[in-house]
Amino acid sequence: MSVATCRGLQFFCGRRKTIGALRVEQIKALPMKHCMVVDDSGIVRQVARRILEQLHFEASEADGGASALEQCQKTMPDAILLDGNMPEMSGLEFLYALRRLVGGSMPVVLYCSTENDVAQITEAIEAGASEFLLKPFEKDILQAKLSEVGLA
């Protein structure tokens, strides 16, 4: 079975493949999951975006909490990869503001930090983060976290 991507849709193409009791003889289009990367570091955003696209996610970027909230008001992502330590609006401030938005309870939020601080992790989970991710991270680790929250 091959996979192709076009205009935000993932196409699984199969010829006479059987799934359960069904025969798949035509193309099925499934919407790609959308993940927003919120980080003040352009390099981190670029690396995360590349990994997400390899995992068949549609990825968008925001360089801070304020611009991320603006984007969320237009289109709410399925997941948010959130830097906890940003200069203008911290990850926690963003989380509290996100969860107050219409539909803001829906996205899975992976809270990212360079510090393995139990108090910070606990506060992030209490503020609405779904999972914690220690930076820097690799594809396998991000894929495992996304799988744990039901997105990969």
Structure, explained:
With 152 residues, this protein is an alpha/beta fold. The chain folds into 2 domains: 1-31, no CATH class; 33-148, Rossmann fold (3-Layer(aba) Sandwich), CATH 3.40.50.2300. Helix content is 35%, strand content 31%. It has a 5-stranded parallel beta sheet, sandwiched between helices. It has a 3-stranded antiparallel beta sheet with strand order 1-2-5, with no helix packed on it. The longest helix has 13 residues, at 42-54.
Summarize the structure.
The protein has 152 residues and is α/β, with parallel strands linked by helices.
Q: Which helices and strands occur, and which strands form pairs?
A:
Layout: E1 2-6, E2 9-13, E3 17-19, E4 22-24, E5 28-31, E6 33-38, H1 42-54, E7 57-62, H2 65-74, E8 79-83, H3 91-100, E9 108-113, H4 118-127, E10 131-134, H5 139-148
Parallel strand pairs: 6-7, 6-8, 8-9, 9-10
Antiparallel strand pairs: 1-2, 2-5, 3-4
Keywords:
disordered N terminus, five-stranded parallel sheet, three-stranded antiparallel sheet, 10 strands, 152 residues, 5 helices, Rossmann fold, alpha/beta, 35% helix
